[in-house]
Design a protein that fits this description.
The strands form five sheets. The chain has an eight-stranded mixed sheet. The protein has a three-stranded antiparallel sheet with strand order 5-7-6. With 498 residues, the chain is an alpha+beta fold. The relative contact order is 0.12. A hairpin with a 5-residue loop joins strand 14 and strand 15. The protein contains 15 helices and 18 strands. The protein starts with a helix and ends with a strand.
Amino acid sequence: MLDIQLLRSNTAAVAERLAQRGYEFDTARFNELEEKRRQLQIKVEDLQATRNAVSKDIGGLRSEQKKLEKSPDYTPTIALSLVGALIGGVVAKEGSKFQAALLGAGIGAGASEIIKALNSNEPEYIVQQDGVIDALVHDGTIIVNSSKTDLEQAAADLDAVQKELDAWLLTIPNLPHESVPVGKDETENVEARKVGTPREFDFEIKDHVDLGEPLGLDFEGGAKLSGARFTVMKGQIARLHRALAQFMLDTHTLKHGYTEHYTPYIVDDTTLQGTGQLPKFAEDLFHVTRGGDESKKTQYLIPTAEVTLTNTVADSIVAGSDLPLKLTAHSPCFRSEAGAYGKDVRGLIRQHQFDKVEMVQIVHPEKSYEALEEMVGHAENILKALELPYRVITLCTGDMGFGATKTYDLEVWVPAQNTYREISSCSNCEDFQARRMKARFKDENGKNRLVHTLNGSGLAVGRTLVAVLENHQNADGSINVPAALQPYMGGVTKLEVK
């Protein structure tokens, strides 16, 4: 979520930066809601102040009354500066009610003189008149009760406007960092570097589907069980898939300093709101309900372990000395792929369920861009170890994800497609997610500040499997197992059709 103070102080500049990523910020609507909120805030504060002042004055009048009852010769000392100003206003607005209150107290002919004295703030005369204090207290009580009703209504109106504003802010994307290239879509992304040279094959290249099916990749079995975009793996392919995930986790925990986590695969809506998937991207999620739960509360299958790892710091204050927090987890990811009809229908590239090893860092704001470069390097190390050619792409403003301020995509070479395909995306979200989650740290001055959050794939296991099969294939359909994976494969150096 964007900083509301930044929006208020520099609306035009925020709108301009959002336009760079193709988002049209409705400035007129924001100004209208802000003005409504401001006016209602003033009204609530004024009504509260009035109610408090009247209540205080009623107490003062009662005190004077008790002193008069004890000593008829007592000279009232009540300072009606506040009472006079307040009740004077009441007389102007509620004169008929005050007149009735005086009549009810048995004061008739002298009422006009009392009101005149009230308006001219003559406390001794007012308080010493029989029945006047009772009349003032009675009338003040009416005002207190009336102001309570008005206050409750104004507070309800303010709450409604604030909720409308907050709900809208949850749908507004993050601001791009100044270093991000401006562009409308993926065609204007910028290549940062290319690592490794695609292999020259002296035989006809097979894609991962043709290579994988004889080794245990079963697309028909997945479709039979769950429908399109689900896959069964068995035998050598299942083992290779598991080995990849274990190798990634070991690399990140033993070499890169991450702490391994195992987190739930089902989460509440507040968790997804914290990382930005809700409310805007509900159609991309798998919704689930719990059998036997009469509340029928909707929960969701996680689209990535980023959601759960990042939310481990939600609603908390982390000690500054504990930063950075570096978290990793291997989990299945579930995505409905809404809008992906007809795209990548063959093979493992785009699945409803796939595994991924996720990296998350929770860092000091001044360290987040340094952490982004580090995280990209961690993902690159996996690709290098697996001997896979790849390139690093800086996404332009129009192609970045909703919560990112800056994103690098890592794209691996896929020989059968003769192109690079995304295998990892590493993003700095700055304080965008932290503000939604209320995730803070205590700085060196003892002040609570929002952390910066980063996330990245380290890597998508299924797509890495695709890359390993295709880049390390042999003419006979066998697959050379990269040296880094062989310890996880029990020393197997080659997958062969049996």
